[in-house]
Amino acid sequence: MIRTVHTWAEPDLYLLADEDIIETCKDAQPRLCPVEKNHDPVIVPDRPWEGATGSEPAACLQDPFYGIVLFDAPERRFRCWYNAYNRFLNRANFQPMVNQGSSCCFATSADGIHWEKPALRQVLFDSSYDNNMVRFMDRQAVVRSTVLEEQAWSIVPYFSPDTNDILAASLMTSYDDPIYQNGITVCLSADGLHWQMHYPPVLPLDGDCHSMCWDPNLKCYIVTTRSFQHTNLCRRWGRPWKRHIALGKSRDLFHWTPLQTVVEADDQDPEDTHLYMMHIVPYGHGYIGQLLMLYTHEMVLEDQLTFSRDLVYWQRVADRKAFLERGAQGHWDSKHVTLTNNPPHPEGDRMRVWYAGKSAPHYQAGYGALGTGTLRRDGFVCYESGNTEGVLTTLPVRVKGATQIALNVDAKDGQVFVEIVDKDGTPIPGCTRQECVPIQGDHTRIVVNFNAGPGQFFDRGNFFRFPDEVRFKFYLRNARLYAFKAPSLLPSWPKPGSKKCASDGVIATT
To answer: Which residues are registered as beta bridge partners of 189?
Structure first.
């Protein structure tokens, strides 16, 4: 059973999704690299409790299949928990004989594309237990249902040495209690199918549309949701309330820091914008935020990309273009798309992701399903050049020990050179553009080499040692640069909120 989740956190991997890493840019364009979606969904509502009637699926889903996909390495199988809310079967209470319209379902797959729905025999539906619905809630504590009650928003590894439980799920739950009326509740499990609910809720009053992840850097859990206190402050200040992103941290899933608002809609967003939800993926030298945007004049939703190095200041990446785009008009995912709440899965030089989609606007019944797609490893944002050679210069960095440079670069139709300059911009002998071995081809990790002799900073292989601040310069011709990897660096990061990048181009979409 799942005991670990793949992590993309590499402190010495510098993603070009961080707008601060490139200080100057000439004759190259920064480009967003959207998810390349498969055309057809991979998990569809073909069962009555999911929204199927007879041989054809019905357009009755309130929400798309919000879900979580994790890879079970010992079993070599993917496991998916996806939420189905059939608004025409929404139950009025928790009696076990009543049809359940809001439910979490379970599926498995060998490849992440073709899925099976096993009979779990946990929930009674139309006089039968022959279904794939998962039971989370403790009926003694929970007294009423909402759209979110029986839906798992996140499933993360659980590391306590005092229990056999290895997974933790988070839900939004309501209680018959004058103090703990509702909030984010944690459930624990040893197999991902049989769950024990923890009472009281670990984050009371908060949690409508939330996400959790494990941060291997800080050795803690991170939650993002809407802050109840932020709502009170908006009322007090006379500000219009909008959905927003607040963040908290915990060592053990049960004791949390106060929620801090970290991302809000601003005057660069359309006036009707709400920030609906954000899942965080620790990645490279920081954190990728999958930011779900709601535009209320059309009631449509799609994902943008955010990036942070400290979980406090978040950059709205790539001029706020859609990272996960809605499908064409009439397509199954034309009105609502959102990535699942889990890290991408590695597939060689690419990463596989899953996403929920729906054909109808938010809060309207439509056809919903779960889709999949891929993107290049580290491939969130790249800098691209054409026939005219582009030059990128990083911010200053100090090297606290021996280092080497590796690139994630697509130069199959061109070439890339690297140069290292001192704080005054003078090329360092042995590390000049002319001495760099040209890089060609398509590589996610290729080490930079220089034609230099003994004593020129790296007489033992291609490891560098520099006594002072340096900058890396990348020369691109008909090439794309996505990231670079260099251990032992201490970048001179700008103060949060100050933008040092002097790009001469506008963000485009590949």
So the answer is: 167, 195
Q: Cα–Cα distance between 392 and 219 in angstroms, integer?
A: 34
Distances (CA, A) of 306 to 242, 310, 364, 424, 500: 18, 12, 28, 32, 17
Domain 8-32+381-509: top CATH class? mainly beta
Q: Which residues, 6+ apart, have CB-to-CB distance to 275 below 8 Å?
A: 242, 243, 244, 245, 263, 264, 265, 291, 292, 293, 294
pLDDT digits (tens, 9 = 90+) for 90-139: 544 444 444 445 789 999 999 999 999 999 998 888 888 999 999 887 65
> Using an 8 Å Cβ cutoff, are 415 and 497 in contact?
no
Task: Give the start-to-end residue ranges of the domains of the chain.
Answer: 8-32+381-509, 36-376
Going by C-alpha positions, the residue among 52, 117, 110 that lies closest to residue 81 is 117
Q: Give the residue among 15, 25, 19, 70 at the shortest CA–CA distance from 482.
A: 15
User: What would the pLDDT profile of 232-265 be if each residue is shown by its tens digit?
Assistant: 888 888 888 889 999 999 999 999 999 999 999 9
The CATH code of the domain at 36-376 is 2.115.10.20
